[in-house]
């Protein structure tokens, strides 16, 4: 089930990312320097786009442009500039690092994303190998900031070292601000830190950049959740224990709690981490009858009930967006801790005499449960309706007695934040 849910999410994600258009106002800078206004199919790219679709304002015609055909474009307050640049393509996974300190450079024609432009400019590219590369601009020339991780054997131990030539490049590039040297020496090769360094430079020079990209930030949404859960209990039939022979009724109970959604930046905010902290219950009752005659039988009633504090952590993917309506698929893991738990049996024995009733623990119940959940959620404004299926490993501590609790949830949610 776990693999099926993940495959479904990946398929739907690929389909929706490929299929949905999102034309927003913008402009392209033609090869001769003219600015042509229109709308651009904006995909909130995590990787720099290889090409864009542009709908011209004057006549509505649609054109596809790659970096060799235009000088750049702007859409959704993001500016991209076409350039032929060098990219560093050395492996960056720790287990794949080479022992060569030298850079491995390849040439690529790409749309570089502008992080800051002006007297001193900083650009960003995720190259064809998936590596982050950063660039500075000297006149009409765009230079790669050189950075590489490599391996060395030190005292028979494999260690990861860094060729940080970019530090010297930045020292020369931003050298007219002497108070920036310490920050430059310590800056990491990341978009956040390099952007902060350039912002500090402009403050040092009491100057303003021509363009500055707004930082990508996740959106935190807090909400309320309430609904019902229909639970069923199954016990492994390989056990010789009589408790596994009983037939158990379904349990229908209310659920309620809080939700915390972390909407991830880029990719048009399609992806999110959905967390829910819920109070939930189950109450299963089952009977096992050993019958010989009307005056010779054993009738046992089993009752398992618990109140749980449950944490669901899921990946959520938006597959349809027609504001104010949207549709999401989600899958993840469930962890539950019993605030209270009971596992009782009541046995009535009749053997040619009045009935004798005894009560005792059915088994030593486990208070911690794990499982998987997956489902779909529709949203309308701040309201949501979720249908979800989940399965958990139940409450049995006995190796030979496997318990499985399957649940179907229907819940209504309300978002408290924007």
Task: Give the structure's gist in a few sentences.
The chain is mainly beta. It has helices spanning 2-19, 165-173, 181-186, 191-204, and strands at 23-30, 35-41, 52-56, 62-65, 70-75, 78-88, 105-117, 122-126, 132-138, 141-145, 148-154, 157-163, 211-212, 219-235, 247-248, 251-263, 271-293, 296-322, 325-351, 356-361, 368-380, 383-392, 403-415.
Account of the protein in words:
The protein folds into 2 domains: 77-212, no CATH class; 219-415, Beta Barrel (Porin), CATH 2.40.160. By secondary structure, it is mainly β. It is elongated and about 105 Å long. The chain has helices at residues 2-19, 165-173, 181-186, 191-204; strands spanning 23-30, 35-41, 52-56, 62-65, 70-75, 78-88, 105-117, 122-126, 132-138, 141-145, 148-154, 157-163, 211-212, 219-235, 247-248, 251-263, 271-293, 296-322, 325-351, 356-361, 368-380, 383-392, 403-415. Strands 1, 2, 3, 4, 5, 6, 7, 8, 9, 10 and 13 form an 11-stranded antiparallel sheet that branches. It has an 8-stranded antiparallel barrel with strand order 14-16-17-18-19-21-22-23. The chain has a two-stranded antiparallel ribbon with strand order 11-12.
């Amino acid at each position: 089930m776990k693999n099926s849910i993940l495959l479904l999410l990946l398929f739907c994600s690929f389909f929706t990312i490929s299929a949905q258009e999102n034309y927003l106002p913008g402009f392209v800078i033609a090869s001769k320097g003219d600015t042509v206004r229109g709308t651009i199919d904006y995909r909130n790219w995590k990787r720099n786009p290889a090409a864009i679709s542009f709908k011209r304002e004057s006549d509505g015609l649609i054109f596809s442009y790659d970096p060799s055909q235009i000088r750049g474009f702007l859409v959704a307050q993001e500016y991209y500039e076409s350039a032929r640049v060098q990219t560093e393509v050395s492996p960056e996974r720790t287990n794949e690092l080479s022992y060569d300190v030298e850079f491995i450079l390849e040439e690529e024609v790409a749309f570089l994303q502008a992080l800051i432009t002006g007297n001193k400019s900083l650009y960003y590219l995720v190259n064809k190998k998936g590596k982050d590369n950063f660039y500075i601009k000297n006149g009409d020339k765009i230079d790669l900031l050189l950075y590489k991780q490599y391996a060395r054997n030190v005292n028979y131990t494999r260690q990861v070292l860094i060729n940080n030539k970019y530090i010297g490049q930045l020292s020369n590039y931003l050298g007219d601000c002497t108070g920036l040297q310490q920050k430059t020496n310590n800056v990491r090769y990341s978009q956040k830190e390099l952007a902060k360094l350039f912002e500090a430079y402009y403050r040092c020079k009491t100057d303003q950049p021509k363009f500055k990209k707004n930082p990508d930030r996740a959106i935190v949404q807090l909400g309320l959740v309430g609904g019902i859960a229909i639970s069923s209990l199954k016990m492994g039939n390989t056990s010789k224990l009589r408790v596994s022979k009983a037939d158990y009724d379904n349990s229908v109970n209310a659920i309620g709690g809080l939700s915390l959604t972390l909407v991830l930046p880029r990719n048009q905010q399609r992806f999110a981490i959905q967390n829910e902290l819920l109070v939930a219950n189950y109450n299963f009752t089952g009977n096992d009858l050993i019958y010989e005659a009307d005056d010779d039988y054993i009738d046992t009633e089993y009752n398992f009930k618990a109140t749980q504090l449950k944490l669901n952590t899921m990946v959520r993917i938006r597959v349809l967006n027609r504001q104010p309506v949207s549709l999401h698929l989600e899958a993840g893991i469930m962890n539950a801790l019993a605030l209270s738990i009971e596992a009782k049996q009541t046995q009535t024995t009749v053997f040619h005499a009045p009935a004798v009733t005894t009560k005792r623990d059915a088994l030593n119940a486990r208070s911690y449960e794990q499982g998987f959940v997956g489902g779909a959620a529709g949203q309308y404004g701040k309201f949501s309706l979720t249908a979800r299926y989940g399965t958990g490993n139940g409450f049995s501590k006995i190796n030979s007695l496997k318990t499985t609790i399957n649940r179907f949830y229907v819940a209504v949610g309300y978002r408290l934040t924007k």
